Amino acid sequence: MSPQLSVFILAVLFVVGWFAVGTHFNVRKGEAALRWLQEGLPLVGEKTTLRWLGSSAVELKIESAKPPFRDAVVLVLLEPRDVPLIWWFSRLRGRTDLFIFRSALRSTPRREFEALDVAAWSARRAYGHVKERDWPAVNAPAPLQAFAPQASTDASPVIAAAALAGCPLVRLSVRRSEPDLEFQWRLDDVRKHSSREVFAAIRRVAEVL
């Protein structure tokens, strides 16, 4: 066997092995997140549709949500651990496992703003959008930065309603177009709390909008 063929075989075994281990790790982490979610989901809705999007994302759709929600989507977005080069690149960009909640509300929010951790990889696109629209910065607690169409908007009371100890928000988006509401937390941070506490915080925000 030539040295080149030996290297090629080893490389293939490495990639296949990494894929298997990375996929297994993500599936286990996703399943643990699903078990964690079970306690809190009834605060939003009873009937949920579950699907895996590859091995790096789990989507839960709630079609007939309880008021003040009209519908909702929960995403558990995991690092792409199954493909080494993509995983290393995403890590360099600061990607982490995320918990994301998006919802259309039954009534249009009275205010509109984006509150972001601008250093987070998942907030960069939204940060670019508010800059393109020239939204002024408005009041928000650090480390978040908030932007709104109206300079008089105060995002602090809404952000305070979402507060979870030791669990800083990555993004809180309130819009007058769907999705009306979006939360992002780092998965490892948000799982320090019960999912019931997390969804109770989400409901508090929805109810003050």
Question: How is the topology of this model organized?
Answer:
Elements: H1 3-37, E1 49-52, E2 57-62, E3 69-77, H2 84-92, E4 98-105, E5 113-116, H3 124-132, E6 137-138, E7 145-147, H4 156-161, E8 169-174, E9 181-186, H5 187-190, H6 195-208
Antiparallel strand pairs: 1-2, 2-3, 3-4, 4-9, 5-7, 5-8, 6-7, 8-9
Descriptive account of the structure:
The chain is of the alpha+beta class and 209 residues long. It has one domain (3-208). 37% of the residues lie in helices and 23% in strands. The chain contains six helices and nine strands. The chain has helices at 3-37, 84-92, 124-132, 156-161, 187-190, 195-208, and strands at 49-52, 57-62, 69-77, 98-105, 113-116, 137-138, 145-147, 169-174, 181-186. A nine-stranded antiparallel sheet has the order 1-2-3-4-9-8-5-7-6. A hairpin with a 6-residue loop joins strand 6 (137-138) and strand 7 (145-147). The N and C termini lie far apart (69 Å). The model has no long low-confidence stretch (mean pLDDT 92).
Strand order of the largest sheet: 1-2-3-4-9-8-5-7-6
What is the multimeric organization of the chains shown?
single chain
- Tally of individual helices: 6
The topology string of helices and strands comes to HEEEHEEHEEHEEHH
Pairing-aware structural class of the strands and helices?
alpha+beta
Helix fraction, binned, reads 25-40%
Described by strand count, sense and barrel closure, the largest sheet is: 9 strands, antiparallel
Give me the Rg, rounded. 20 Å
Which stretches are low in confidence, meaning pLDDT under 50 for 5 or more residues running? none
Query: What is the terminal separation in angstroms?
Result: 69 Å
Query: What do the pLDDT scores average to?
Result: 92
Number of β-strand runs: 9
The number of domains:
1
Estimated share of beta-strand residues = 15-25%
Shape: globular
